[in-house]
Design a protein that fits this description.
Avidin/Streptavidin-rel, Lipocalin, biotin binding, biotin, alpha+beta
Length: 135
């Protein structure tokens, strides 16, 4: 009986991670980051493009932080389980735009996680100030 129990536990342990690992990452929906910002991605079309909105919780301004539109694309929609993607946000409260690139992952527990990198470009008064325009 001890052997059967051991094999059953091992079989269950092997099934759970593979089910989660086989799950595709879906960008559509509401995403929150560790800083309190949230993003809503609407449905992807057949070309992999999408739109949505971004509400940042962090900004270098004293203006009201407004919900801002985003436009993006996912690489090869439906062909990858953990796709790469990119999107831009046109901030409604400042003269800047941010470009994000990243990848969507599904961890062994089935949780979807976005890993992203971003660049923010703000408007500057002249070309000589361009060195301080990108973060």
């Amino acid at each position: 009986m001890g052997t059967l129990r051991c094999c059953l536990l091992l079989a269950l342990a092997l099934l759970e991670p593979s089910d989660a690992a086989s799950r595709e990452c879906d960008l559509q929906g509401l995403w929150r980051n560790e800083l309190g910002s949230n993003m809503t991605v609407l449905a992807l079309n057949s070309a992999g493009t999408f739109s949505g909105s971004y509400h940042t919780a962090v900004a270098a301004t004293n203006k009201q932080l407004l919900v801002s539109p985003l436009q993006g694309a996912q690489q090869h929609p439906g062909a990858k389980r953990q796709p790469t993607f990119g999107f831009t946000v046109q901030w409604q409260f400042s003269d800047s735009t941010t470009a994000f690139v990243g990848q969507c992952f599904v961890d062994r527990h089935g949780k979807e996680i976005l890993e992203t990198t971003w660049l923010l470009r703000e408007e500057v008064p002249s070309h000589k100030d361009t060195w301080k325009a990108t973060r």
